[in-house]
Amino acid sequence: MSNYPPDPYVQPKLTRTEAEAYLQRLRLPSSLLDSAPSLSLLSTLFLSHLEWVPKDTSPLHVPEAQWNGPSTPIKLSSAFTNMPLGASAYDRIVHESKGAFCFSINATFAGFLRHFGFTISELVGRTFKSLGNDPMVHPDGWRWGTLTHELLLAGWPESPDRYLIDGAWGPGNLAKPIKLTTDPEGEAILGLNDFEAYRLIYEELPLSPNMTPPIDNIAGYTLYRRFAPVGTPHTLPITADSPGYWSPLFHFLLVSVPIADYMLYHHFSASHEMASFTAFWLITRIIPDSGGARRSMMYAEKEGQGKRAKVFTTGGLEGRGSEEGRDVEWVDMETGPMKEYLTREFGFKF
Fold first, then answer.
1. Crossing angle, helix 259-270 and helix 102-115, to 10 degrees?
2. Which InterPro entries has this protein been placed in (predicted)?
């Protein structure tokens, strides 16, 4: 067990030089380096992070060496050790202007936030497997997956409150800090436009009536996203009479996770034979100053669809709550055209 972390709950923190480079990556001024932690600062850093650091599964499918030389087909698989874990993603995110998945992005973002004096807890969430559906009426019901998502809680010494932030969920990402509360009604906020709304509620893991309840259980928090008919803006407070329904994103417990456990979650997500992330290609981020519009590139091997990744825009004021993609482009799943596109449109450095 020589590789087992000697201090499993160590909290990496970026140096001043590293934090300044991270601010440059986020297109934010270096003058923020000496800012005291606050909700305003957290909100600014969080949104800029979502605008410039994409969720990115490409390291799972393309070893770095494959990007060099002649153009070759990209095959969905796992490059095993190619996806960085934890704060080791710093160089990929900051110097190569690329992204990664949650166990890399959120861990690195946590180290960045600690530079400013934020107290950051790294947690793991259980993802909802029927995203966008109403679990009260959909046949899937409350269909939960495994603990495959890292998320963050942020606080600071002068604040009585703590806030959920998540730098790597992807489409449907909450882009504002949301406060933890044990109020039975939870905390509900609007997103970056009136067609986005989120709710964080303290509760035990919701299960369908036909599911066996656990023998031992404790309450945690569930993050929900609100869905309403296209073109229907959300208005607070959202009540039982408001149009639409709440659909879960993930559920988590207030239990800090040690580094070794993240190694296990990382393996299950990136290199295990049941790893879900190896089955699709996703690069996505919020478009800066767009009111929440998101540009995404997606590909999964489906018969009859060809070997091309779809690039499209969703959300924002223009989307008016629609999940339909617009401004569609297609990119061949080969390293040559893909490298050119990612360099030009997402700012990747190879």
1. 150
2. Arylamine_N-AcTrfase (IPR001447), Arylamine_NAT_domain_sf (IPR053710), Papain-like_cys_pep_sf (IPR038765)
3-class DSSP assignment, residue 277: helix
Q: Which two tokens stand for residue 209?
A: 């009536």
Q: Name the residue type at position 274.
A: M
Give the architecture-level CATH label for domain 16-345: 2-Layer Sandwich (3.30)
Structure tokens that stand for 68 in this block: 């060099």
Q: How far apart are CA 179 and CA 155, in angstroms?
A: 10
Nearest-5° angle of CA 233, CA 176, CA 282?
90
Backbone φ, ψ for residue 23 (5° rounding): -60, -40
The reply to whether the predicted model has a pTM over 0.70 is: yes
What is the rounded distance in angstroms from the CA atom of residue 231 to the CA atom of residue 340? 36
Q: Which residues of the chain have pLDDT under 50?
A: 1
Distances (CA, A) of 145 to 66, 106, 251: 32, 20, 10
Per the CB < 8 A criterion, the answer to whether 180 and 199 are in contact is no
pLDDT above 70 covers a percentage of the chain that reads 96
> How many Cα atoms are found within 13 Å in the side-chain-facing hemisphere of 69?
6
One-letter amino acid of 125? G
Phi and psi angles of residue 113, each rounded to the nearest 5 degrees, phi first: -65, -35
Coil, strand or helix at 316: helix
Q: What is the pLDDT of residues 294-328, one digit of tens each?
A: 999 999 987 666 899 999 999 999 999 999 999 99
57 close to 277: Cβ distance less than 8 angstroms? yes
Q: How many whole angstroms separate alpha carbon 107 and alpha carbon 45?
A: 15
CA separation, residue 149 to residues 76, 193, 252, 313 (Å) = 21, 25, 9, 24
Q: What angle do CA 151, 154, 158 make, to 5 degrees?
A: 170
Q: Are strands 163-165 and 178-179 parallel, antiparallel or unpaired?
A: antiparallel
> CA 196 to CA 321: how far, in whole Å?
7
**3-state SS assignment for residue 158:** coil
